[in-house]
Specification:
Blueprint: E1 2-5, H1 11-23, E2 27-30, H2 33-43, E3 47-51, H3 60-68, E4 77-82, H4 94-99, E5 103-106, H5 111-144, E6 148-153, E7 158-161, H6 163-169, H7 173-176, E8 179-181, H8 190-202, E9 206-214, E10 220-231, E11 237-246, E12 257-260, E13 273-275, H9 286-289, H10 295-305, H11 313-326, H12 330-343, H13 360-369, H14 407-412, H15 423-429, H16 434-445, H17 448-452, H18 456-468, H19 479-493, H20 496-501, H21 504-516, H22 526-532, H23 535-539, H24 545-559, H25 572-588, H26 594-614, H27 621-629, H28 631-646, H29 654-678, H30 694-717, H31 720-738
Parallel strand pairs: 1-2, 1-3, 3-4, 4-5
Antiparallel strand pairs: 6-7, 6-11, 8-13, 9-10, 9-12, 10-11
Helix pairs in contact: 1-5, 11-12, 16-18, 16-19, 19-21, 19-28, 21-25, 21-28, 24-25, 25-28, 26-27, 26-28, 26-30, 30-31
Length: 748
């Protein structure tokens, strides 16, 4: 609701009135201070706009002060309309702030200017005030909670405790506010126990467990405690919430400690305090209640306290081992300690390489593909596409229709449904533009235009825009690679087991993700970009840099121009679902989580399906359907599908496999050359064009990344032809390596 206070009707008041109508806000108009105050006390408006241009009518500042004296105005936004002065120096806004105005508006009777002001207020100050109002009910709930609740700042300064906390610990709230937590938990597990808490903290988890705390009178009490960090401004932890419950003989906590989804503090719940800075804010005050914008996070966390416990599977394992250690002989306890050290690493799915005897080709590939690189060691910076402008629909020539494709291109695509389809023949026929043509045919075969409710011309424009933003100068990561991955994706989608599993929206997402998965790839690895301090690495915080860029740019290119926006006719919720799946699949192509994706696929899908077969349930459609159709497993299958499509080169017919090997090697050689020119760390030293053995590098890649993944995918999708090509290609590379040849092909 909006209240306009203008002594006379003019263009400015009419502009705001029109803006209220357009925005759907209820609007009242008052001509005098008295009528304005009466109207506000009756309606309790969210926004009040007061005319301050003509002091002869009424004192705007006095009116604002009068309104601010009422309790109803606590969460009201009050705007002051001031005259526009072009001939004198800007005046201070402080007198207006002192009078109680929220902000000022320099007169501008443009209707759209008034409308924009109201919309900015709605999504800015008004929305913030709504959150503050909601905090009153939240703190009422805290006051009545039977669990002891303590809230501290990021510096562990107590800002709030509820009555249940006062009762449990024997303190009055005045003795605690503005005091700092100073002691760690008193617990018989000592160092091991604290290590467990710290292991939760360091990996960003909440902590839950049982320990002893001291009351004011010195007595020790056993508590079941959950400590939750609250993320606030800047994405940093701004508060800690501690929820405690007394333990008794009839209510023993089964688990010693649990890591839950968030992070906890090191200085946990005990109650000896020392004086701390006096400027600390009592959380119960109105201003502090919504200051971190995280009331919703606290509300959802509190709502779950009584009803459920959330714990990660790895936490359950650690808790079981901790419990077993207590009653184990010394050798067993020491062995369990070593097991815990392994489990507490964040790289649970990545095989650990040796340091000296490991094949350097494997080491370099792993370093180059599965890490974000070393930090930059020189002052040089590689700025990726700093001034690059991306191709858009309007800058491209009109694409050809599917019905008007030249005969040579049609012939090159005749067997595109077969695995042995030759993408390089299509590349030559299309003059390095295979993606548009292959995309048109595959998308037509899968009925993509019908699903998206878009025209063929829109799809053609989209494919052309995407292809134009692949770098033809890259030897490997160009539109031919994208077309190859699209072909593999379409082939996998045609397999019976995959068709049983995925819905039409999954198929559409997979084909789109394959098309865009490397768009605007610079021909350099993530490690290179991080080492070079590139703009993209800075933008994406050195994490999944390229994959994040591919996904983001794909949607930017698609939605910025209606001519190529294939999503423009979709229903909003369906579009959001499709977008989510596309992004997830593109991000799955990032190699740092390769083993995590593969192991989850094996353990969640391959093994349960194999167990059903071993138990004679091969024909039990419902049991198989349960495994295949669960939302979690469908996500794993889609990730595995695009991962296999993305690096399927070793499973292609020999000549294609050799061509791809030459192209990726050249791209890595070029990166090594540039790293040396720029004075950057050389991520993959083995890829020196003068010394590298391409057969060895291919065998290392196949052995480390390909064999296990395609064994798992073959077991699921039944791909005997791919596995035959893979075995033949392994024999080929081994034959070259056995003759100490470093090249792609043997001499004539």
């Amino acid at each position: 609701q909006v209240l306009l206070v203008f002594a006379e009707e003019d263009d400015q008041s009419n502009g705001f009135r029109w803006a209220c109508d357009k925005a759907g806000f209820r609007c009242n108009i008052a001509r005098t201070p008295q009528s304005a105050l009466e109207c506000f006390l009756d309606k309790h408006h969210d926004i009040i706009i007061i005319d301050h241009r003509h002091s002869r009518y009424f004192d705007a500042e006095a009116l604002c002060r009068s309104i601010r004296t009422t309790k109803a105005s606590e969460n009201t936004v009050i705007i002051c309309v001031v005259q526009r002065h072009t001939d004198r120096e800007e005046s201070s806004i402080l007198p207006l702030i002192s009078a109680g105005f929220t902000r000022r508006y320099v007169e501008n009777s443009s209707r759209m200017a008034c409308y924009n002001e109201l919309i900015q207020l709605e999504f800015g100050q008004v929305q913030a005030q709504f959150k503050l109002r909601a905090c009153n009910s939240l703190f009422t709930a805290l006051e009545k909670s039977q669990e002891a609740i303590e809230i501290t700042s990021e510096d562990h300064v107590i800002q709030y405790v509820n009555p249940a906390f006062e009762t449990m610990m024997g303190y009055q709230i005045g003795e605690l506010i503005e005091k700092e937590l100073t002691e760690v938990p008193i617990n018989e597990k000592k160092a091991d126990f604290l290590d467990t808490i710290n292991s939760c903290i360091k990996i960003g988890k909440e902590w839950q467990g049982m320990y002893y705390a001291k009351k004011k009178n010195g007595d020790s009490i056993q508590q079941n405690v959950k400590i939750l960090p609250v993320i606030g401004q800047g994405g940093k932890i701004r508060h800690y919430v501690s929820i405690s419950r007394l333990c008794n003989d009839n209510n023993k906590v089964e688990k010693t400690c649990e890591c839950i989804q968030a992070e906890s503090q090191t200085d946990t719940q005990t109650c000896r305090h020392k004086d701390m800075r006096k400027g600390s804010l009592d959380v119960r005050s109105t201003t502090s209640r919504g200051s971190d914008g995280s009331s919703q996070r606290r509300r959802s966390s509190m709502a779950r306290v009584h009803s459920m416990t959330i714990e990660a599977p790895i936490t359950k394992v650690i808790n079981i081992i901790n419990a077993a250690q207590e009653s184990s002989p010394l050798p067993v306890a020491e062995a369990l300690d070593r097991a815990l050290e392994i489990l507490r690493t964040t790289e649970l799915y990545s095989p650990q390489l040796g340091t000296k005897d490991e094949d350097p080709h494997t080491s370099d590939l792993v370093g180059g593909l599965m890490t974000d690189g070393l930090r930059r060691l020189s002052g040089n910076e590689y700025i990726l596409s700093a001034k690059q402008t991306h191709q858009v629909a309007g800058s491209l020539s009109s694409p050809i229709s599917l019905n008007d494709i030249p005969p040579r291109i049609t012939q090159a695509m005749e067997n595109e449904e077969q695995w042995d389809f030759d993408i390089f023949e299509l590349e030559a026929a299309t003059h390095k533009r295979p993606l548009v043509y292959l995309g048109l045919k595959i998308f037509a075969r899968f009925g993509i235009c019908e699903f998206l409710n878009c025209s063929e011309s829109t799809l053609r424009s989209w494919l052309q825009v995407i292809e134009a933003n692949y770098h033809s100068s890259n030897s490997y990561h160009n539109s031919t690679h994208s077309a190859d991955v699209l072909h593999a994706t379409a082939y996998f989608l045609s397999k019976e087991r995959v068709k049983q599993t995925l819905d039409p929206i999954d198929e559409v997402a997979a084909l789109i993700a394959a098309t865009v998965h490397d768009v605007d790839h610079p021909g350099r690895t993530n490690s290179f970009l991080c080492n070079a301090g590139s703009e993209l690495a800075i933008l994406y915080n050195d994490t999944a840099v390229l994959e994040s860029h591919h996904a983001a740019l794909a949607f930017q290119l698609t939605t910025r121009d209606g001519k190529c926006n294939i999503f423009k006719n979709m229903e909003r919720n369906e579009y959001r679902t499709l977008r989510q799946v596309i992004i997830d699949m593109v991000l799955a192509t990032e190699m740092t989580k390769h083993f995590e994706h593969v192991n989850k696929f094996v353990n969640s899908i391959n093994k349960p399906l194999a167990a059903l077969e071993e138990n004679g349930n091969n024909g039990d459609g419902e049991s198989i359907k349960t495994v295949l159709r669960s939302p979690e497993n469908r996500i794993l299958i889609k990730r595995m599908l695009i991962k296999c499509a993305d690096i399927s080169n070793p499973c292609r017919p020999r000549e294609q496999c050799i061509e791809w090997a030459g192209r990726i090697s050249e791209e890595y050689f070029a990166q090594t050359d540039e790293e040396r020119r720029q004075g950057l760390p050389v991520v993959m030293p083995v890829f020196d064009r003068n010394t590298c053995s391409i057969p060895k590098s291919q065998l290392s890649f196949i052995d480390y990344f390909i064999i296990d993944m395609f064994d798992a995918w073959d077991a699921f999708a039944d791909l005997p032809n791919l596995m035959e090509h893979l075995n033949n290609n392994i024999k080929y590379w081994k034959g070259l390596d056995g003759r100490n040849l470093r090249v792609l092909r043997p001499p004539p």
